[in-house]
Design a protein that fits this description.
Elements: H1 2-21, H2 28-50, E1 52-58, E2 62-64, E3 68-77, E4 83-94, E5 101-109, E6 113-122, E7 127-139, E8 146-149, E9 154-160, H3 168-171, E10 183-190, E11 192-201, H4 213-219, E12 223-231, E13 234-239, H5 247-269, E14 274-279, E15 283-288, H6 291-303, H7 311-316, E16 323-330, H8 335-341, E17 348-354, E18 363-366, E19 369-374, H9 379-382
Parallel strand pairs: 2-9, 13-14, 13-16, 16-17, 17-19
Antiparallel strand pairs: 1-3, 3-6, 4-5, 4-7, 7-8, 7-9, 10-12, 11-12, 14-15, 18-19
Helix pairs in contact: 1-2, 5-6
Length: 388
């Protein structure tokens, strides 16, 4: 395009010079024609631009990372001339990543006709991303000028990270610890028969071995015992959301999302409550007791903004003593983390260091905990280091 413009300007200057040098031999009509051609091309482009309408639509609103998403583009030409080189750029802008991912398309647009384009793209990263047509452009028949068309249609897709399920050997490892609790919940019942939480009327489906026979005979109706729920220090997942300067950082962030999601699911399968801590304009905390709690926490985590290195660890240290087991997930090593690993403390501290350069399965033991190197493509193998 630029080359054609330079050639045309050079030709115009040559004709202009010839008109001054040989005014009797070269008519001014050629000069006027060369002046009118760019004006006509500009007029053609502006009229064509007003008569092209573009609509954009994405079918899926929720997806899983790595799966394809289907989109449709509808272009209507209401003008009597065709466009041979309509070029479109589909942009995907991902949360916590500055650089959009782009897909190019070129189509021939017939006169007084509507063209439809259907295609798919593969979701590169987890989290919410915006898909839109970033640029639509075409040129005049002589390729002297480029004209841009705006399309304000955009679609948002919420993308969940891949959930990695543990196998039976991971769930029932010999390293699991059974802790004895000496305190019981005041507002929830449980299965510890050593303490009675409450006594209530019998309901269909209650276990017969929980019937309180003496009280039932006195009250003249069946009464059942509710046992107590032992409580102890809870467990937690501390998630660092680092700033992403390039696609490699963003892939590591996806590994952090998937590791956190996998540990939450692991705790649910073990029927244990677990807290999730991360920083998003302050320390955020979610308690995971059900599958719905887990999915809600993951969605909130995906929408959180990235923060400076080690921010969440600094907040966590203020309440570290209230947890028994801590799973810290990060892709950066810093002085504060190494200092914590090298010092003794009450909680069982496990650090998952996420990175594509990491050697899978490499584990280092320190005085204050364990450091596990995890490749983002091998998250499931990292679950072998989770003991609940």
């Amino acid at each position: 395009m630029r080359k054609r413009q330079i050639i045309y300007i050079c030709m115009f200057l040559c004709v202009l010079a010839m008109n001054f040098i040989f005014p009797d031999y070269l008519p001014f009509m050629l000069l006027w024609i060369m002046l009118l051609i760019p004006v006509m091309m500009l007029g053609f482009g502006f009229i064509m631009k007003k008569n092209i309408q573009v609509k954009f639509h994405v079918d899926e609103k929720n997806a899983i990372r790595g799966l394809p998403v289907h989109y449709q583009v509808q272009v209507h030409n209401a003008f009597i001339f065709a466009v041979e080189n309509l070029r479109m750029t589909i942009q995907c802008r991902y949360h916590n990543l500055k650089q959009p991912i782009e897909y190019e398309h070129t189509m021939m647009l017939q006169a007084l006709h509507t063209e439809e384009l259907e295609d798919t793209y593969r979701i590169a990263y987890s989290g919410r991303h915006e898909t839109s047509i970033g640029r639509i452009r075409f040129s005049d028949p002589l390729h002297l000028f480029v004209f841009h068309i705006k399309c304000n249609d955009c679609c948002y897709v919420d993308t969940m990270p891949v959930l990695h399920q543990p196998d039976q050997m991971m769930l029932y490892s010999g390293q699991d610890e059974i802790s004895e609790a000496f305190e019981f919940s005041n507002n929830r019942s449980g299965d510890d028969s050593s303490e009675i939480f409450d006594v209530r009327a019998y309901h269909g489906g209650d276990f017969l071995n929980r019937i309180h026979w003496k009280l039932s005979a006195r009250e003249d109706e069946l009464m059942v015992k509710e046992f107590s729920l032992p409580i102890s220090r809870s467990n937690c997942i501390v998630v660092e959301l680092p700033l992403c300067e390039n696609p490699d950082d963003r892939r590591n962030l996806d590994g952090i999302y998937e590791m956190a999601y996998a540990v939450m699911n692991f705790a649910l399968l073990k029927e244990q409550m677990i807290d999730v801590l991360y920083v998003d304009d302050g320390l955020m905390k979610h308690t995971i007791e059900t599958k719905e709690d887990c999915e809600e926490a993951v969605l909130e985590l995906l929408q959180a903004e990235s923060s400076d290195e080690g921010t969440c660890l600094s907040h966590f240290l203020e309440e570290a003593d209230s947890y028994e087991k801590v799973f810290y997930i990060t892709d950066r090593m810093n002085y504060q983390l190494m200092e914590y690993l090298n010092s003794s403390h009450d909680c069982c501290f496990t650090c998952f260091y996420i990175g594509y350069d990491n050697i899978m399965g490499e584990t280092s033991t320190f005085e204050g905990g364990r450091l596990n190197s995890i490749n983002p493509e091998e998250i499931r193998q990292g679950l072998g280091a989770v003991f609940l």
